[in-house]
Amino acid sequence: RSAVPLLAGGSLVAAGAALSAQEFWRELPEPCQVVKAHLADPKVQAELGFAAAPWSTRLWHGQVGDHFARVTVPLYEVRAPFPGTLPWLRVPQRRSDVHAALERRPSVGWVVLSLLEDSGAAAAAAAGPKPRRTDDILAAESGLSVQPSDAVARVAEPWPELKVPAEQATAPPPAAPAGAAAGSWTPIVEQLRKLNQNVEALSTAFKRSQQASGVPSSSMNEMMAAYLENAVDYADQRPEVELTIDVTDVANVDVASGTYEATFNVILDWEEPEFLEGIHYCQDVRSDKFVLSNWLQNDPNAFNPRIVIANLVDDLGGKKEDPDSPFQPTIHRLVHRGNRQQSVWLTKEYEFSGTFKMRSADASFYPFDIHRLPFEVKSLPMPGLTTLGGEREISLVDPKLRRMQAYEESCKGKQAVIFKPDRFATFPDTFQAHHWCMHMQASEVSEDVDQSPLKVDVGELQVIAYGGCDNGSDSYLLEIVILRNWKTHFFDFFIQILLTMVSLCSVWVPFNADTVANRLSISLAIILAVVFFATERPPAIADLPYRTSHDKFENVIILASTLISLENVFVWLQCYGVDRSGLADYYLHSMSIFGLELCEEGFLRASQFDSIFCVLVTGWMLLVMFWLILRAQLYQLRFLASAMKDLNAFDPDLGDEASMDKEVSMSKMPSFLSFSNTFEALHSAAKQTVNRLSLNLRRGRKVNFENRCSPLDVVKCLARHGMPLLHISPRFWLQVAQVNQDSGDEAPGCCSCCRRRKPQDSGRSGVLKLPSEKDPGAPGSEWLKQYVGTRPVLSKDEPGYILDVGTGEIGFYHYRWRTPGGRDFDPVAKPLLFVECSTKLKMDTSKTFLEEYCQSPDGAQNLAEAILTNFALIDTSLGRGDSLISLETISPKSPKSPKSPKSEDNRPGTAPGRRRKVKILVGPTGANRVGALQKAEIGEAFVKFCQDVERLLREKLLADVLLFIPSESDEATYELWATEWLVQRGDLNVEGVNAGLNGVPFAGMELSQALTRAARQSGGDASNCPLHSFLREFEDLMEGEIDGSYLESMFREASQQGDLGDDLAEIPHISEVMRSSPPLMRSLIKSRLFNGTLSAGGGSCQMTVKPDHSERKPAKTKRTDDASVGSSAVMRNSEFYSIPVGNKSPLTGQSPIFPRDQPMTQGLIDKWRARICSVIEEADLPPKLQGNLRGVFVGISAVYYAADLAGISQKLLPKKLFVQKLEDKLADLLANQPEPEVKKNGDKVYDHRAFANLTLVAEVVNTVMANTAWIVCKRNWKAAPVDAAQGQELPKYVATWSLGFFLNQAL
Question: Residue 93's closest CA among 41, 50, 47?
Fold first, then answer.
């Protein structure tokens, strides 16, 4: 018996020892294994001054999470206390503690952020205020490797003084932690700031020294260097992330367990103001969308917010994000603000579906209960620490960009690529932050309904409000307020009240010996039925441990039935009695305690007592029912007001628009138990203004969520969701709930942005509007359809003779396809397009074409002679030698002459002897076009004049003179086609191009994105591209001399620079080979980068821009054999814009800006520049022309002359450099002005045309083009070298609309 305690104690000790040994030898977590490896490093042991026992790490304690760990390890040293006498005796001694902070990085694993030794208070006092730091700490702080021998010296040494950029030197220091004394933290913060500045300066100097070392680098390395040079630091400042939630489904609300199921989408939006175009993002030329650069997407330090749902209980689906490979953000839009600040709007979308936990579920008012369903969104901190060692938290805030975008769509009807929030900053409050997107099922909607309406019913619950709020930290809360539809339980209440009424029918049982039995049989049956109802609780509250209003009402029913049974016994005893000796059955009892009057027949034909009791019970039942509804609706009013107050508490500026007292703040409101103060504050601060909570003010079956509401709207919301008493005088119920009601202001109307004049529908201010038939003197629709905007058809092998009848000159253009040797069109040989004639006939500046030719008696003869002379169309087969038309033989007024002999047709496949017509196309432009469109007589004069010229020409050759009037947009489209064709086939110099913005090489970003996309499509390594993916990616470049064989040879050349085989090449090598091929780069410009032309004239500036790829249409149409038939209109392949200001604007007028009798001054230039900016602003240009034209543009006309004057014509330049060269030339002209012309009377006349043109071109280019755009100014083009004979001159071109028209017909 004495050994039992010993055995029991020994067993417990043995079991404890076994458990301790099992716990001691358990496998260490990964962070502890990393710390153990560091402690085993000899360098660390040298810093510590002793070798820690290997088992020390098994005594660790701390916190280990999925992505961050803080671990404390006590360090023990095993020593021999008596080395001389007892060397075998080893005793562990605790020396210090090591505090380690680690983080988990993708594809790297756990990394030590800091390793700090703590030797205790005594050691710290002896060693000084600073704890000892290991090399790992020094390396983490400095970013450099630190040797153990001089670690202490490096800590004590000051950092070298380096040149720090001004914007960094003036940056404010990071804020000290909350609660820290300002005096104690100031020197530490200042030292940390200097540390960061010096490290960044060292890194920048090291990168620049590498670039200047002369080591050749590819364009991909240049792109990487540019990205590293402009890396964004998120250590202490991170963008605020706007959060938008779209709720798509809510179901299975369980008030017993406090859970519900839901599906919703979360959209994250934020701005990146430090992103640079061409480095961090670019425009994908194939999709016309802005995309992030590959360097940014692969950067683990890039800002990529991640979120989790804090109250998620069970995940049921949705888009799951891998922590090691999170979703990549995308560019939604570009953002331009008034101060020319540009930022990038990034977005990221999540989808969550699962079971969520409610904060509290109080169903004590069932079936009048109301609940709040929360979605608690929390952002995860960025990897790394701040300067002060804190976590890099990401703030979640209310959405503003999305609401302003919705306002923009309501004003304009569509989204522009560039978003200008300054115009929509004062958006109406009706645009809500979040959206209810739960729609009815197809089976719930009738077939005649086009769109599925919103659904707010969640079982027997209804959604009456929803809203969100941010608290300025890393969490965001969205709440949905749901109210139970108690009408579904009305039948239950009615049945129980009806049972009580049936039980009251027992009062009409007459008094006799069986009265008690008869009455109680009824009452007891009703009591059993009511008890059955009470024991069978509804499924929604079956598991609730507390009583609800439903239970209380059933208890009242049971109590009433019991009272009825007791009343039946009591009234029988008092009015009939048990002792009936000597009394007849119809006599009442004479010993009644309240007199026989109450036993007599009453007003309900029962006894007076029964009648009074029946009325009292019925009134009591109705009063209980009324009190339940009254109490429930007051509770719902206070609950809904409390939810509104809680969400509005984080908006201190709420209600400023409604002239509220700014001292009233929703955050200072008391709890909802103080009803009067709560509603007074709600009314004061939310008087018809925006609230965080949107109420469902449904009208009939239509769902209508409104966030602009007042306390009266709270009452209306509940009244329309099943509270019938609130329909009766809502203001009375506000007073009952001690709510002060006041009339609110009406919602403000649309802001000034909507009241501005709307831009033109097409967005092209320069498109000439055709007159209608209602205009007096305008040509009719048939005439317009026949001559305006049509295209006379030319066959592919047919030469083109085109007359450009301009305002001050007539252009004669003859285009023909032939080989360089001189042969006509040959389908076997490779022909070139030659311009056989390109001459211009000047006209009298004092006369128009109509006056000089159409209305002149010899005008048709003069033009016919000019046509024959310039086009060399003399037909020698008529036997009249080489002489011109005999102008005496045919008069313009003579009848039409008989048909002349036809010239022989030399086209291949034509029967011998067949003659061929010559088509001469006459196209009036400029003032001639305007006159023909405005007055019918001018148009008819043009038609008659062409007929006269045709009759004169037919004396020498068979010719058709065809009149067609290209519209202004058609002319711009033809001009764009000509320039686009010349870009690829002309002599555009694409070698030695200067680097663009931020040092990015020309087409560097475009090639990087395209090659990476091709590599990823093959499913392999993103740094290597296979041949088949390369050919598929650049198949749009195959045109002309660029074919599949040429691309394959370029790829083979790149693959030979590596060792991956013939069918696989590294992306940097492919990029270098492509950039070294002028034909390939010209094809790349033509197919992907070329975006339009810029031109300027005396009265306006024109921009012809290619539309988005999705809107582009092929220019080719079905041809017909009839030369006189043209298509109805030109297939639009461009967008034409015009600015009504030209280079002659400051030189003309009664008081010109540039007086001709005064020399140029800087003040006059500034005045002219201000005039240009004013006209551009008044033109109300579309967003595309407000600094957002990207790609390569060709400058022609006055833009070319300005570039030629500055010495930069024929050169492909970035926009910023182009504008800078123009400004430099302008400054040089101002400093060295040309000598004025001296008239005979001694007056000096100054020529200011160069000043006007340079200033105009510089301002227009700087306004409409993006900083990443490129421009080349070129007028005269030469065909690119082809397989031609030695010494043969290649054809030359000028980009005119006539060339574009001919190319459109011949290609």
Answer: 50
H or E element that contains 467: strand 461-470
Sign for the pseudo-dihedral over CA of 503, 509, 515, 517: negative
Which tokens sit at 1260? 């227009």
Q: Pick from 892, 883, 890: which is nearest to 858 by CA?
A: 892
Phi, then psi, of 527 in degrees rounded to 5: -60, -40
Beta bridge partners of 307: 379
What's the average model confidence in pLDDT over 737-742? 44
DSSP E strands in 11-144: the ranges are 61-64, 68-79, 91-105, 109-118
* Contact residues for 913 (Cβ-Cβ < 8 A; gap 6+): 904
| Contact present, 612 and 594 (Cβ < 8 Å) | no
Backbone dihedral region for residue 390 (phi beyond 0: left; psi -120 to 50: alpha; all else: beta): beta
**DSSP string covering 1032-1074, please?**
HHTGGG-BTTB-HHHHHHHHHHHHTTSSS-TTEEEHHHHHHHH
Closest to 233 (Cα-Cα) out of 382, 52, 448: 382
Phi, psi (deg, nearest 5) at residue 720: -85, 5
Q: How far apart are CA 324 and CA 106, in angstroms?
A: 5
Location of structure tokens 């529908």: 761
- Under a CB-based contact definition with an 8 Å cutoff, are residues 939 and 932 in contact? yes
| pLDDT tens, residue by residue, 718-728 | 888 877 777 77
Give every CB contact of residue 1276 below 8 A, 6+ residues apart in sequence: 1292, 1293, 1294
| Sign (positive or negative) of CA dihedral 179, 181, 182, 187 | negative
Tell me the DSSP string of 1070-1120: HHHHHHT-HHHHHHHIIIIIEEEEEEE-SS-EEEEE---GGG---------
What whole-number distance in Å separates Cα of residue 1211 and Cα of residue 1070? 25
How confident is the prediction for the chain on average, in pLDDT?
A: 75
Query: Residue 638's pLDDT band (boundaries 50, 70, 90)?
Result: confident
Q: Tell me the C-alpha distance between 1247 and 343, whole Å.
A: 43
Both tokens of 640, joined, read 């809904």
Burial of 909: CB neighbours in 10 Å, binned 0-12, 13-18, 19+: exposed
The token pair at 263 is 């599906």
In terms of Cα–Cα distance, which of 194, 140, 142 is closest to 168?
194
Residue pointed to by tokens 């039980």 = 503
d(CA 990, CA 1007): 15
- Distance separating the N- and C-terminal Cα atoms of the chain: 115
| Exposed/middle/buried for residue 85 (C-beta within 10 Å: 0-12, 13-18, 19+) | exposed
Question: What pTM did the predictor assign?
Answer: 0.59
d(C-alpha 33, C-alpha 104), whole Å: 13
Note the pLDDT of residue 446. 52
Residue 322 bridge partners (DSSP): 325
Which region among 1194-1198, 1207-1211, 1288-1292 has the lowest average model confidence (pLDDT)?
1288-1292
Distance (Å) of CA 137 to CA 105, 106, 151: 18, 22, 10
Alpha carbon distance 1051, 1074 (integer Å): 9
Do residues 790 and 1124 make contact, with C-beta atoms less than 8 angstroms apart? no
Higher pLDDT, 722 or 1270: 1270
* DSSP per-residue string spanning 869-881: HHHT---GGGSST
Q: 926: alpha, beta or left, given left = phi > 0 and alpha = psi -120 to 50? A: left
Question: In this structure, what is the dihedral angle of CA atoms 1204, 1205, 1208, 1214, given to the nearest 10 degrees?
Answer: -100
User: pLDDT-derived band of residue 105, with 50, 70 and 90 as boundaries?
Assistant: confident
More reliable by pLDDT, 791 or 1062? 1062
491 token code pair: 């039948």
CA distance 261 to 249: 8
Tokens 């109509």 locate to 850
Beta-bridge partner residues of 1024: 1066
